[in-house]
Amino acid sequence: MPLLSLDGLHLRAGPRTLVHPLSLTIESGEQVALIGASGAGKTSLLHGLALALRPGAGALRFVGQDAWALSHRDRHRLRRELMLAPQHPPLPPRQRVVTAVLAGRLPGAAFGQSLRMLFSPSADQARLAFDALDQLELGGRLWSRVDQLSGGERQRVALARLLVSKARLWLVDEPLSALDPQRAQRALGVLRDAARAQGRTLVCSLHQVELACALFPRVIALRDGHVVYDGPPRGLDEARIAALYAGQSDEGSPPGEAGGDGLGHGRGGLHGHGQGQGPGDGNSDGTGIGIGTGTGTGTGTGIDGEPAAGVDGAPTPPQAMCR
After folding, report:
1. In which element (H, E) is residue 197 found?
2. Nearest-5° angle of CA 28, CA 30, CA 33?
């Protein structure tokens, strides 16, 4: 029996269609990448899979149970079996990192255990959080406050929360958007290895087409809310990828990883050196989103004192990424 089965699932926001009716199955332990331009429906599909968005039509079955035919209490219980890591984790700024990570253990935990994790983690609980953070090169941040972290560090804290969770289904939305390319690949490798070792099912949306094709055995491509490809990456040739992003060059190419982990104080994004090649998203001075027009790299000092590479403008188009 598949872990997930979608039968004509149709996701809407009022009169607007987010994801057109689709049918597919995802097996237990499978690893799936979602690709497509911004606005293609990747995040909406993840929210639908997370039972955070009620479908306008169709059915979503989790281990054979029609999730939206269940009572509210039973559906809430079912949600313990899955966890969504959003692109911008809603972490309380004054919360300690150890507590933010251990929140991944809260679903299904006893009341006493929950209080302990939230207010005074035991040595074993702190070790669990440290081990997850250490895999993501954040072990030294265990007792830091969230508001002391860069954007990339916050994203990795959200991934560490996944690593400690007991959820069977991991849903991850753009986990690499604030990371430099090398650290992004390492973080994604940790996530995939942990999912495989723990027998978890991983569904991850990515703008980095080359990583999706290199690291995931199954790729689902969306365009304008339609699934236009579902299969192994070898089936995504240059023509198919060009068609996937055609007419959406400002959104279709993976956005620049501006600022990287130097988001707090770095000038790696907007102020890179190089020749302009068109618009791209870049974090300017670590204070928000700016529009960059260069393609070169810049460096900045991250919040923990390490250099942070940033790239502004559109990087290499994805047409030739899959082999």
Report:
1. helix 181-198
2. 140
